[in-house]
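Posting this for the archive.
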Amino acid sequence: MSPVIPYRDLRFPAAPADRPYTIIDMVATIDGKIVSGERGEDVSDLGSAVDHAVMRHLQDCVDGVMIGAGTLRATPSGWDPKTRFRVVVSNSGRVDTAHSFFKGGEAPVGVPNAASFEPADGVLALVAGKTRVDL
């Protein structure tokens, strides 16, 4: 049985002409943690089924998703957001380009010049910064 999704009728105003419209889509524990356990562990236990359904619904309302490489590593394969744009950001260049996140469309990887990132076929490296990604 699918959870009832609050905010089903949520709508966002149009983006201003001079900048993109940005939202943040995340969960945190009551004590403010956004990582349960150790970095790199599966994150599917953080948040309830309703939290996950709301996050997927919010992703359906936006044009793009940006995710850190560590979060992507901790996200079970199978996640394929239905957005026009997807970006992975990594300071190290350690990105699993076989993850399902890369299957649904173009998903460039933002890396600094110092990162040793070898893009797979169809994956574009966006060099932004010298030793750390400069968003």
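The chain has two helices and four strands. The longest helix spans residues 49-60.
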